[in-house]
Amino acid sequence: MWRRLGPRSKARNRVDAMDGWLDALRHFGVLDAVDILIVAFVVYRGLLLIRGTRAVQLLKGVVVILVATMVSSMLHLQALNWLLNKIITIGLFAIPVVFQPELRRALEQLGRGGFFSLSFGTSDAPDMLQVVAEVVKAAQVLAKNRIGALIVLERTTGLSEYIETGTAIEGLVSAELLIHTFIPGTPLHDGAVIIRGAHIVAAGCFLPLTDDTRLDKQLGTRHRAGIGVTEQSDAVAVIVSEETGQISVAVDGALRRNLGEHALRETLEHLMVRKRPRTWPFLARKAES
C-alpha cells in the first residue's frame, strides 16, 4: 500500500527543500561556478553532436519521460511514478544501443581533441584548395552528363576499413581521373572514390548505408552510402545523381542538395580548409592507412 503524505508533511518537505537551496547558495563558490560552466559546455557540445540526426527525436522522448517522472513525484502519483522509474531503469541499458552512432562519434572527437576544440583557424594544406578545385570540376562534368558519382574526402577520422574494400589507386587527385573512374561500364564506376589529402587512395569502395527513415524516398543507394559514411566518421561526401544530375554534399549525417558550382566550391572549402578545428600538436596524428 502507498501512503499519501498529509498537509503537515508536505509543508515540512517544502520548508526543508527551501532550507537546502538557501544553504547551497550560502556555500556557492568559484569552483562551483566552474563546475557548472564545464557541465554546460559538455551539454552544449553534446547537443551540437546530435543536431540534425535521429537522436534529436529520441532525446525529446527521453526529456518527456523525465519531466513526467518529476511531475508524478511532485503530485505524489505513486503508481505512475513507479512505472516511469522502471522505464528509466530499462532505458539506461537501452541508451548505449540506441545512441551507438552518436556515442561513437563523440568518442572519436574526444580522442582527436575535436570535442573540446573551437572551429576556427585554417588548415595549413594549400594542396587542399587544388583538391577542392579538381573535385568541383569533376562534379560539374559528371552532373552535366548525368553520370552518377560518390566521392569521399577523408578528414581526421581514418577510413581504412572502407578503403580496404576497394581497389588501391594512389594517384594524385585530378578531374580527369575522377571522371574516368565513374564512366559507366568501367570496373570501378559502381563504388565510392576515397580521397586522402591530395591523393585518390582507392576506388570502387563499399560504404555503410544510413538507416534514417526520414530521408526522401527518391534518394538511392549512392546517397544513402554517402550519408552513412558521414554518420560514422567526420568525412565529407560529394554525391552526383545520375537520374537528376544534381550535386549534393553529405557531412555529419546531413545532406545538402542541389548545389551549383559556386555553392559546392564554397561548401568544400569551408569544410576542408577554412573551419578545420585545431588540435594539440602532441596529440595530433595522421589517419592510419
Spell out the blueprint of helices and strands.
Elements lengths: L6 H20 L3 H21 L4 H20 L3 H21 L1 H12 L15 H18 L4 E5 L6 H4 L3 E6 L2 H7 L10 E5 L2 E7 L15 H11 L4 E5 L6 E5 L2 E3 L4 H14 L15
Helix pairs in contact: 3-4, 6-8, 6-10
Class by SSE composition: alpha+beta
Q: What's the CATH H-level superfamily name of the largest domain? A: DNA integrity scanning protein, DisA, N-terminal domain
Specify Rg, calculated over alpha carbons.
25 Å
Average per-residue pLDDT, rounded, comes to 80
Helix content: 40-55%
Concise overview:
This protein has helices at residues 7-26, 30-50, 55-74, 78-98, 100-111, 127-144, 160-163, 175-181, 221-231, 261-274, and strands at 149-153, 167-172, 192-196, 199-205, 236-240, 247-251, 254-256.
Overview of the molecule:
The protein has 289 residues and is α+β, with helices and mostly antiparallel strands. The protein folds into two domains: 7-111, no CATH class; 127-274, YojJ-like (1. The chain has helices spanning 7-26, 30-50, 55-74, 78-98, 100-111, 127-144, 160-163, 175-181, 221-231, 261-274; strands at residues 149-153, 167-172, 192-196, 199-205, 236-240, 247-251, 254-256. Strands 2-4-3-1-5-6-7 form a seven-stranded mixed beta sheet, with helices on both faces. A hairpin with a 2-residue loop joins β3 (192-196) and β4. α6 (127-144) crosses α8. The protein starts with 6 loop residues before the first helix and ends in a 15-residue tail after the last helix. The relative contact order is 0.12.
